[in-house]
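Consortium newsletter contribution from the modelling node. Members have asked for a concrete example of what our holo predictions look like. Here is one, prepared for the nicotinamide-adenine-dinucleotide complex that several groups have been discussing at recent meetings.
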Amino acid sequence: MAPHASSDVANGAVNGSARQEPSPLFTVNSPNVVYTPDEIKSHYAYHTTEVTRSADNQLVATPKSSNYNFKVDRKVGKVGMMLVGWGGNNGSTVTAGILANRRGLSWETREGKQAANYYGSVVMSSTVKLGTDAKTSEEINIPFHDMLPMVHPNDLAIGGWDISSLNLAESMDRAQVLEPTLKNLVRKEMVEMKPLPSIYYPDFIASNQEDRADNVVEGTKASWAHVEKVQKDIRHSEFKAQNGLDKVVVMWTANTERYADIIPGVNDTADNLINSIKTGHEEVAPSTVFAIASILENAPFINGSPQNTLVPGAREFAEQRKAFIGGDDFKSGQTKMKSALVDFLINAGIKLTSIASYNHLGNNDGKNLSSQKQFRSKEISKSNVVDDMVAANSILYEKDEHPDHTVVIKYMPAVGDNKRALDEYYAEIFMGGHQTISLFNICEDSLLASPLIIDLVVLAEMMTRVSWKEDAEGAEYKGFHSVLSVLSYMLKAPMTPPGTPVVNALGKQRSALINIFRACVGLQPESDMTLEHKLL
Ligand SMILES: NC(=O)c1ccc[n+]([C@@H]2O[C@H](COP(=O)([O-])OP(=O)(O)OC[C@H]3O[C@@H](n4cnc5c(N)ncnc54)[C@H](O)[C@@H]3O)[C@@H](O)[C@H]2O)c1
Ligand SMILES: O=P([O-])([O-])O[C@@H]1[C@@H](O)[C@H](O)[C@@H](O)[C@H](O)[C@@H]1O
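And here is the predicted structure:
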């Protein structure tokens, strides 16, 4: 991975001289790929298989090829990450983690010296197959982060909002996630980081959160003044101005809210939603206000929580303004495991008949989720994750048949952030047999979610520098659809453009992301066929 300049942070300020863009780890040698100092342009043949039914109901598969042009802006610039809920367990943990990595810190633990790392981040700690060695035919794998010119998390300016006034050092202590030896190494910088006051509509989160709400702006329901406040915070605050930022990504990692009712005339269209905010409709959530303000500032907005922040009106507004949105709900532990295990079982022809998912945790997220309306938001996002995999196998499942699936979450303060996930997968196997898989998974919630926050921010920013056009006379480059379904790997309930399918299978999600990035540099998808090792 290209070496990285470090920089210091005080109150979100990223100091240090302008960074030299790191040189790419690889170049593509092809007449279809052109590199300039500012851009990578590629011509890409997209091969698919179109299936039709013949008159006698036979399936007919026809290979299809579409030609696209991709363009990647190589200039990363200075990027800011603004977290809503910055003072929470995730917000304080990801901040400390970035500071520790930026400074290359190590600290003493009971098991010995621990160095900062980005484990759990697909972007920073996973590799992808580039190809095979011309001489030895061995696989050549490269860091995912080197696929395209992406921002390095060490360079992210960090800021955000919280209804709690605690500074980030106090928030880190409250979270009880990180080792004291590490906390002491970053405390001095984190003391200087203070969340901006936020908007607080009590009806949307559990009443047990009220005691934290000492850093709020006036008004307990939506108003256009709230939108303007958030816009100003993004655009004019010392955060962006002081850091000379070129771009900001806004990430909701605040409490899980209750679902908002989708009401015709209120939030079903962009115009109705804007009007509902202006008239203070009580069904407009704080998270939706942040989304609208981010869209107005052309700052990608990602929802890391399960509620339906991005109501149809918000999605339409993003589409109208060609702004990026994504969500919902970080896929960090129990559900991530589920989306891999269910994919394996069903694709192995094993008929999963029931999934029991229980977990208990003792952090503030668990406290908020102990309230039924907030739990319901999470139950929805945790329950739909198997639908696409089940629907794809008509041998095992009749139409609309699916495994029993239950989700239970209990708040047990004693275990803190170290969530205990217990799962049982029950399946029918050959000739009337059964298989029972029981999992006990201690997921340190914030340490699993924090790398996903980094991935979502880095990838959302990357997508702002990717454009495409049809291979046709006069075609203009344009951005991907406003709904960034390319982020699905990191999310439990991935949002997709209207009318497009939701893919939850973890392997498919990762392949889609990698192969889209390969296409941006003119490389065909990695098929894993390795014919070169078979046609011998
Ligand atoms: N593994 C994980 O930690 C994980 C996984 C998936 C989803 N999530 C979701 O991420 C979110 C954050 O998780 P957490 O563990 O950091 O929770 P947390 O309760 O520790 O942090 C949430 C923070 O949001 C703040 N907040 C609440 N309403 C706000 C508002 N309107 N504006 C600004 N700040 C506000 C709270 O004061 C708190 O500091 C939750 O919704 C959780 O469900 C977490
Ligand atoms: O990502 P995951 O481990 O499946 O789901 C988790 C839930 O099990 C947990 O109860 C909740 O507090 C976290 O926010 C997260 O959503």
